[in-house]
Specification:
The longest helix has 30 residues, at 29-58. The chain has helices spanning 2-10, 29-58, 68-80. The chain is built from 3 helices and no strands. The protein is mainly α and 81 residues long. The N and C termini lie far apart (55 Å). It has a domain at 38-62.
């Protein structure tokens, strides 16, 4: 890289075109935001998973995976789509 700078200053080569594909960033802003959101959702789901696992291990007895409130909310949301 330093040789290219010296050659550019000496006039032995032309400056690179900034629109060239080799100068485009691989990670665009949307990809970065997507990665951050994916990581946060993954952390959130892992927290829910560990909470459910702890409740099952403790055998609290009141664990209901088919909650009527959740079913109502899901039905209401899906019916509006």
């Amino acid at each position: 890289m330093i040789r290219k700078v010296y050659a550019l200053v000496a006039g032995e080569c032309a400056p690179d075109n900034p629109d060239s594909p080799q100068h485009q960033e691989v990670l665009l802003g949307g990809h970065l935001y997507g990665s951050i959101i994916k990581e946060k959702i993954d952390d959130w789901l892992n927290g829910i998973k560990s909470t459910i696992a702890q409740d099952v291990r403790r055998n609290l007895g009141g664990i209901d995976f088919v909650d009527s409130t959740l079913n109502y909310c899901c039905f209401h949301v899906l019916s509006t789509i």
